[in-house]
Amino acid sequence: MRFEGTLAKWNDDRGFGFIQPTQGGQELFAHISAFPRDGQRPQLNEPLSFEVALAQGGKKQAVAIQRPGAVAPRSTAARRTPPQLSRNHSSTGVFGKLVVLLLVCAVLGVGYSKYDAYQQARASATVAAPWEDAPPAGRSIPAVAPLVPSSYRCDSRQHCSQMTSCAEATFFLKNCPTTKMDGDGDGVPCEQQWCTR
Predict the structure, then answer these.
(1) How far is CA 9 from CA 19, 23, 28, 29, 39, in A?
(2) Residue where a domain stops, chosen among 66, 88, 113
(3) CATH number, residue 59
(4) Contacts from 36-42 at CB under 8 Å and sequence distance 24+?
């Protein structure tokens, strides 16, 4: 509930004073923070309207002070942008979103084309690689035997003199990368000791 009164006392240095209610009664404490922030300093004998609230000590004080005749602050609904400005803003927002979408599509397109070129180069390198490592003309490539579970295991052995059979030497050559048993590179290990033709 709002009341009316006049500013009876004011201490500008300390930022507070007292309001005398028009209906009579005890003066009410008024702090500068309760006044409207309109740039005007409180003036003695100035008519005011206010609400009453309890302060921390339990005493009554004036809050939400207004000057009669002053324009009340506009509500947020009244502060809205006029319809034509809103339309312009929304069309600018749609245009901005469209530009961003086009930029994203362009970046994705460039990225995809680079990825596709990389995949094609990789595929052509894979196809070309076997021909680069092919044996000279007239030499046959030994057939690759299917992988069969074996009792052999890779260890530190690398030379034919450390093998006990052609099967063991063949296993080591195919499965153990550090072996040195195929000097002529034909895929047949230990041709002079174990895998003679």
Answers:
(1) 7, 17, 10, 9, 19
(2) 66
(3) 2.40.50.140
(4) 36/65, 36/66, 36/67, 36/70, 36/73, 38/67, 38/70, 40/67, 41/12, 42/7, 42/10, 42/12, 42/17
**pLDDT tens digits, 97-142:** 989 999 999 999 999 989 988 888 887 766 554 545 555 555 555 5
Task: Judge residue 171's burial from the number of C-beta atoms within 10 Å of its C-beta, 0-12 exposed, 13-18 middle, 19 or more buried.
Answer: buried
Which of 10, 44, 66 corresponds to the end of one domain?
Answer: 66
Q: Which domain holds residue 162?
A: 151-197
User: Has residue 134 been placed in a domain?
Assistant: no
Query: From residue 93, how far is each of 3, 50, 86, 96, 97 by CA, in Å?
Result: 48, 44, 10, 5, 6
Structure-derived torsion over alpha carbons of residues 29, 7, 63, 34, reported in degrees to the nearest 10: -100
pTM of the predicted model, to two decimals?
A: 0.35
Q: Decide if 88 is inside a domain.
A: no
Structural domains in the chain (count): 2
